[in-house]
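Hi, here's the filled form for the chain we discussed.

Project: internal
Contact: R.S.
Residues: 389
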Amino acid sequence: MPLALWALAIGAFGIGTTEFIIAGLLPVIAVDFNVTIPIAGYLATSYALGVFVGAPALIILGSKVPRKAMLVFLMLLFVAGNLVTAFAPTLGIAILGRIITSMTHGAFFGLGSIIAADMVAPSKRVRAIAFMFMGLTVANLIGVPAGTWIGQHLSWRDAFMAIAVIGVITVISIGMLIPHQPKPHNQRFAHEFNAFRNVNVLLAMGITVFGPGAFFTSITYIAPMMTELAGYSESSLAWLMLLFGLGLFTGNQLGGRYADRALMPMLYITLAAQAVVLLVFNFTAHSQVMSVLCIFLMAAFGFATVSPIQKLVMDKARAAGAPTLAAAVNIGLFNLGNAVGAWLGGAVIAAGFGLQSPNWAGAILSVIALILAVLSGLTDKTGHAAEMN
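And the returned structure, exactly as it came back:
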């Protein structure tokens, strides 16, 4: 893989750490601001919604800016947002910092996906996108557990300050490794919106919302679930998040490898398996052994879909002649799904269904994603049959 992909992976590492670290820090943040766990969960929901809104806005505003310069600007915004959260005197200001940080997310991965795919041969494009997303998985393998440990033993604020440092390193890496990206010429964003009139693009984006959102429903509330139901100590949360990260890393590698060969069948299998694992987790959350197994498997099956879904959307949008905005919006939709998942998980807990209930709620989202994937596959077959006739 081209060396320049490492700059994208480092940026993904920082973004992934700040996104997922909330799952391990919710209890200590809730205590610090004297709020309930579901209220503290707004830090996850606001981030996800910020990505959804910020992705298209920044892509459009930066449409005339060279991609490399845009990446630098995005990571400087990332640094600023994490510092606002780190020094926030109230929960409201902390949420504001999360929103500022989230503005980076969608545009960075949207631009990064296009840059990564353009650097390699067509037969390796999912693997190139997966290489960038590897930063997210390594974040959960190393960054999130380390940040969780810092949050528990030092301060959750120190964790966000450390993430800001990662942002600075990313800015330097982009400057050194990413080759010059020419300034876009005659880019007509009115044409880019044509992608959203294409049923194949919309079905692929629907998978984006409900697929990864399914495991986010559960992992957002994994800390109280494991400490109060499975009986793990708070000190165990760091290695449980490490296990979650290992699952993400494994799923990302397998998804990137096999989706280049058979994208849709791979999606069918992983979405169905994710639903089954979450449903099993609902009934076995009191077991420490089964919890460990389910955390790993839901992460692996859940993240195996991420780079293939991004490639699917890019392919459908490219066929419609409008890949740039769709690629960024789809990253926003990943996080809209995360917001839906975080909200749904908190809602079923608040409704009295128990701390394990986000698992069955996530299983429902995964089944919805599977149905959309099947419809997408059938639409493709219908389209190919029509072309042959």
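Let me know if anything looks off before we file it.
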